[in-house]
Amino acid sequence: MNLKTLLKTADLGLDLLVGADAVDRPITRVFTATLRDPRRFLTGGELVLSGMEWWQAPEDSEAFVAGLAEAGVTALGAGTAESGGVLPEHVVEACKRHNVPLLVVPVHIPFATISERVILGLAAERSTPNLDRHRRLVAVVTAGGGLDALVKAGETELGAECWVLSAAGRVIAGKGESSEKLTKRFLHAERLPIVTGGLSVFATTAKERALGWFLVVAGDYRTWERERQDVASEFATLIGLERSRIDEARRIENRAAKPLLRLLLSEQTTQNDIQSQLAATELDDTEVVTVSSTKHSAAVVDDLLSAFDGPALVGTVDDEAFGLLGTNQPITAELKAMVRTMEPALGPTGLVLGLGRSTDATGLRTAILQARYARKLAERSPGRVTVMAGDEVASHLLLLAAVPDELRRSFRNQILGPLSTYDATHKSELTRTLRVFLEHSGSWTLAAAELHVHVNTLRYRITRITELTGRDPNRFGDRVDLYLALANETE
């Protein structure tokens, strides 16, 4: 199959912008790429489909297209939904410079449709003993059997147990077991496929590792005959096609997320407004998840929430990604385990999640704010990967997280600044003394014992603290100010 054949498929409506002299180039397979640099997934001859998620600036176009040219791809099929319906001119120019044919995919044509046509075309052209195998696998896809049916068919054709794992270690399809050790092994691998523990692991798409699904097949593919290896490779590609269909369906479902989220985040919204918008969804008892802004944060949250029973909506508002999950089951522990498993795939930016909980629609706005503030606190915790639930955090810390950073710093410095300066100048421990005194609820005896000082020494220090801060730790109102300032200091 070549570019000319694909371009003649009228119902796809593909427009060739670059590469009129290269329409005879053969297509060996199709890959959907969301990465800025997908080279490790490419072997040459691919039709690369990309929704332009990676594109932020002109220099990104040069790096992306140069990588495709280096990998020897046949062409780039670019969607324009992410770029407002217009393909950036820098992408066109980069394709001209590197002689990479460029096809524009109409907004209404899913990548899954193009992938299916290419796979069907390739299967039809084969004249190997494997032809029937390929056709049977493709027939499962075209019949709409779904991922479970496809995995069962793949097991039959390969004569081996197969299953699909996510980067979070979740079993997507098949009867294999989830393994954190196995998942981390292939997430750390520079290239796929790999063999580990008697299992072969194949990439199914050219997505970033944190969003990837991976085909696991029992046995060492390196010992298989070439025809069986080809079937396994196409099987993985077909799983990627099913993933594209699922992603497309989720994108359509998630269109309801942004209007609802904007209502929930607005201070002018009434409960009637929320209830009216919520009626268009299947959400009821709702767990709210918010994640710190990263390039693919919404997609990561969507993939994580799909592990749980119940309807889910995911959307982004002002560069902040939110997920809404309708469930009456706790998810914190399982979510933490999944995020811990996928850590090798998250890169230097990591992932920070905050969770809130609502038992009905009236508490949904409070829950989403609780989740946001829990996430803000989690961002101040050590480590690149953190999950923090609102009910794990003391209420006063959630209140502090809602205060702008500048005001928080001003509050802390106003109260504790004199103590910090005094301690630095005199090598004293007034700040520590105050913390211990408050932790023991103002007990002179217990605080003095922990500090290993006489009670009279402690009384002198508290007197000095009162003079420097203008607040008496023995008075309730002043004690609250001092306690909040110390809590703010330790984040």
From TrEMBL:
CdaR GGDEF-like domain boundaries: 296-376
Domain PucR C-terminal helix-turn-helix, first and last residues per copy: 430-487
Sequence ranges assigned to domain Purine catabolism PurC-like in this UniProt record: 6-119
InterPro entries tied to this protein: CdaR-like_regulators, CdaR_GGDEF, PucR_C-HTH_dom, PucR_C-HTH_sf, PucR_dom
Similarity comment: family membership: Belongs to the CdaR family.
Protein name from the UniProt record: Helix-turn-helix domain-containing protein
